Every structure is written in C-alpha cells, then in structure tokens.
Amino acid sequence: MSVEERVKRLQWQSRRGMWELDLMLVPFVRDCFRLLSEQDQDRYEKLLECEDQDLFVWLMKREIPESSEHKDMVEKILAYSETADLSVFRNL
C-alpha cells in the first residue's frame, strides 16, 4: 500500500466521532504522517486501535499512557496540535 493510500485510510480512521479527537487526529495524520518514520507510522496505527475514552484522556492531558509507544505518539500529536508548526514537530 502506498503512503498516500495509507494516509487516506488513516484520515478516515482518525475520525472518531468525538469532536475533540477529530480536531487533533485528522490534521495530524493529514499534515504529519508522511514525515514520521516507518516505526512511528506503525505506532500511530496502533494508537488508533485504542478506545476513544483512552485517547481522549491522553490528548486532553488528563492521563499519561502506560505504553511508551503510545506516550511518544501522543506527545507528537500534542506538540503539533498546540503549535500547528511542522518545524516543532520535526524536532521531536
């Protein structure tokens, strides 16, 4: 599967039906997914397998994910959503 096909599929999967999550996940996958390492791309897909409630508390900074992989990806999503600046994202 090409990266572009993967991005389209993940944009759809990133629409969670919860406005707060949609506002963070959809722009992240649209703008940043192509810049991620292959390992981080896989981590993002794994993150999407989590329950919406877990994603919500992590992305609203109410809890920290126990998994270091989820924690790293949540930090990247938060860094981008807080600044919408790709140069900040690239420094992570």
From TrEMBL:
Q: Which domain of life is it from?
A: Bacteria
Q: Provide a GO CC annotation, any one.
A: cytoplasm
Give a single Pfam family match.
Answer: Sdh5
Main localisation, per the record? Answer: cytoplasm
Bilayer-crossing residues are: none
Localized where? Answer: Cytoplasm
Record's keyword annotation contains Transmembrane? no
Please indicate if the UniProt record lists Chaperone as a keyword: yes
Q: Which UniProt keywords apply?
A: Chaperone, Cytoplasm
Tell me the GO BP annotations in alphabetical order: succinate metabolic process
**Which InterPro entries does the entry link to?**
SDH, SDH_sf, SdhE_FAD_assembly_factor
The entry assigns this protein to a family as follows: Belongs to the SdhE FAD assembly factor family.
PANTHER family documented for this protein: FAD ASSEMBLY FACTOR SDHE
Protein's UniProt name: FAD assembly factor SdhE
